[in-house]
Write a structure and sequence with these properties.
The protein is an all-alpha fold. The chain contains 22 helices and no strands.
């Protein structure tokens, strides 16, 4: 954690120095260009019906030229953004697709859904939110999403409930924990920059997270399901499960002879959660020089944890239920085909975001925020909101906002410092849209249009941000 804190502190200091400089014509230029670039993405996808990968790539190049990035550096900036996202998220998507395919084809997803369906249908959104929140404590948003999508899809198909009635609670549970609760990178970075107490931040973060998940998950899902009434027939809802009922007659052992038990199913799905929890515990309580720390640090890495979960699934969801080695190999290969397009779109979103950052958009927004005289709580939220909307990166928004408000927060008691961390975290999830890789991930997974994704996912993120800030301000009265 100390290395992370040092790195983000240097980045924050550099950003803060730039934001204390006078307003320049270039700052106005990059803000206008950023707005134009976002409009280009929407027009190309919605009106011209262009594939999102091409639309994002074209918009990134337009923004880069308009922001004054040298032509020789423009493609490098875009490629850096694509590589930065796909180097991490792409691997997680691929491993998650493998795990999801085996979970569905073995009948393991049916076991989970059968258990969730016990009781009334009305309780199912609440169960989804609870499971997502538990998974979301140690997991990156992308990891939790790829694990939960097959379960959400199957539950929608079985219950015939509107897709958003179950998807929104799951998304809210993951997103809230990602924005507010350590050991996620954003909150941990802000803790390091502001010298806040990690334990106090974790405790207050959970207090903020619980009501935020309730309001923005199961309660908001009722509205989202009416705004976007897609059901189990939606194209996106089939893309991870469409092959589950099909068998390849040329492959012997392509059908499961039995289903995995609920215990093994749950153990397999939650195994990466458990490994990442161990990793988080090691960072907080184990000496970094010990062998135990090094081992837990490796196996708790999201990529390694998911890889180990896939290897375990090849047994519990594979050979143990009757699949042959050749059938397993084919299923794993087939699982990657539907997610290729998703990975390219997510990568292009990362490239678009990086061009915005390199062009100076976040610095221009920071200058606006510095000119305002507000409390550390409010200023931290506003700065994070502006940078999040402009760049699409919650991490950039968190690091920059925390660096700017650090002088204002100096000398605050531990509880108030922790609340500043949480206000920055709340602002960092505000209105995810076309420049955010997460936007495209959700859109493609659930087969929605851009406008449908804005009405559901983007609105949910905005609600999380506002409700989170409200909870932080309420807590500030008592702590």
């Amino acid at each position: 954690m100390s290395m992370l804190s040092t790195g983000v502190s240097v980045l924050a200091a550099s950003a803060t120095d730039a934001m204390n400089e006078p307003w320049a014509a270039h700052d106005t230029q990059v803000l206008l260009v950023a707005l134009f670039g976002i409009a280009v993405v929407v027009v190309l996808i919605v009106w011209a019906k262009m594939h999102a990968f091409l639309a994002l790539t074209i918009a990134a190049l337009v923004v880069g030229v308009g922001s004054g990035i040298p032509l020789g550096d423009l493609t490098k900036s875009y490629e850096t953004g694509v590589g930065g996202v796909l180097g991490h998220v792409g691997v997680l998507i691929a491993l998650g697709a493998m795990l999801g395919k085996l979970l569905g084809d073995s009948g393991g997803a049916d076991k989970i859904v059968d258990t969730l369906l016990r009781g009334s249908k009305a309780s199912l959104p609440w169960k989804m939110a609870l499971i997502a929140a538990i998974i979301g404590i140690p997991m990156f948003f992308e990891v939790g999403l790829v694990l939960l999508v097959p379960v959400v899809m199957l539950a929608v198909q079985r219950t015939k409930l509107p897709a958003m009635q179950l998807a929104i609670p799951a998304l809210a549970g993951l997103s809230v924990l990602h924005g507010f609760v350590p050991p996620h990178p954003g909150p941990v970075a802000a803790v390091g920059i502001l010298n806040a107490d990690l334990g106090v931040t974790l405790a207050l973060g959970l207090i903020v997270a619980i009501p935020t998940v309730i309001i923005c998950g199961p309660l908001f899902a009722r509205l989202a399901a009416r705004w976007v009434p897609i059901g189990p027939a939606g194209a996106g809802l089939a893309f991870l499960t469409e092959g589950s009922a099909k068998t390849d007659a040329s492959v012997t052992g392509a059908e499961a002879k039995r289903t995995p038990s609920f215990g093994w199913t749950l153990a397999t799905v939650l195994s990466p959660v458990f490994l990442m929890l161990l990793h988080s515990a090691a960072n907080m309580w184990i000496n970094p020089d010990t062998m135990a720390f090094k081992v837990l640090n490796i196996i708790g890495d999201p990529v390694i944890a998911l890889l180990l979960a896939v290897l375990l699934a090849m047994i519990t969801f594979g050979t143990a239920v009757g699949f042959t080695a050749s059938a397993l190999s084919k299923k794993i290969g087939d699982s990657l085909l539907p997610v290729v397009g998703v990975m390219l779109i997510v990568g292009a979103g990362g490239g678009f975001k990086q061009v915005l950052v390199d062009g100076g958009t976040s610095v221009a927004i920071g200058k606006i925020a510095v000119a305002l005289s507000l409390s550390a709580l409010i200023m931290g939220w506003i700065i994070a909101v502006l940078i999040r909307v402009a760049t699409g990166s919650a991490t950039v928004a968190t690091v920059t906002a925390a660096g700017i408000v650090a002088p204002l927060a100096a000398g605050l008691p531990p509880a108030q410092l922790a609340l500043v961390v949480l206000s920055v975290g709340a602002g960092s999830v505000f209105f995810s849209h076309v420049n955010d890789a997460g936007f495209w991930l959700v859109k493609e997974y659930f087969g929605m249009t851009v406008w449908q994704t804005i009405k559901t996912w983007s609105m949910m993120e905005t609600l999380i941000s506002v409700v989170g800030l409200g909870m932080v301000l309420l807590l500030s009265i008592f702590v």
